[in-house]
UniProtKB/TrEMBL annotation:
<dbReference type="GO" id="GO:0006508">
    <property type="term" value="P:proteolysis"/>
</dbReference>
<dbReference type="Pfam" id="PF13365">
    <property type="entry name" value="Trypsin_2"/>
</dbReference>
<dbReference type="InterPro" id="IPR001940">
    <property type="entry name" value="Peptidase_S1C"/>
</dbReference>
<protein>
    <submittedName>
        <fullName>Trypsin-like peptidase domain-containing protein</fullName>
    </submittedName>
</protein>
<dbReference type="InterPro" id="IPR009003">
    <property type="entry name" value="Peptidase_S1_PA"/>
</dbReference>
<dbReference type="GO" id="GO:0004252">
    <property type="term" value="F:serine-type endopeptidase activity"/>
</dbReference>
Amino acid sequence: MSRTSGPRRARTAAVVLTAVLGVSGCGALPELPGPAPTDLVPSEVPRAVPTATGNLSPDGFDAAQRMAVRIRNVGCRSLSTGSGFAIDATTLITNRHVVADSADLQLSTYDGRDIGATAASTAALADLAIVRTVDELPAFPELAEADPASGDTVTIVGYPLGGRLTVTSGRVMGVTTDPLNENLGEVLVTDAPVEPGSSGSAVLDADGRVIGVVYAKNAAGMSFIVPVSTLRQMLADEGAFVPSPTCTD
């Protein structure tokens, strides 16, 4: 898929990429094929210094935490957690692997309020999913018009390890071909820390706009992001998302 902006391609060295799944564990993938050039990725990337609100203003942080949702996937044989964020009053975005094989999806907001889920739909192309809710969500952010460029500061807001709401910050290191979905095209690579349970977290720019969705990390600590340009394209395609099968189907 085409991208709105064009940062230089960057490939990671031969590392094992893992989906940032829930607390029940992470799935490992084989190494990327072929020689992986490292000269396009800085060996040392400047790190933003995290604060109580990441790189967001106090108002931006307040809006970010209000739209972040913790997801608990109760499956027939497993239990995992993930993160998501609202895009309108009754719609969440998260990862496909966060809602996979569920018998029950349990949602909660930053203030501890439980939200009922009515249905989940997943995309075949990218690790994205839509969850519809019974009750209205506290707030939802604006989607950025363009993907960030290399060096841009980003903030990730989610629920790692199924715990409290956490904010981490970093910078965009570049782009790489998506190692999980080869037909997707390019995804963003950042140095913002994520943990199991961070899957589906919103990635925000300095103005609090969504510029991507966390879906994986690698052994070197780099996080992988579905860019907002891909999210926008898929939301505009009525056939991109189909009902998600459950473990009871």
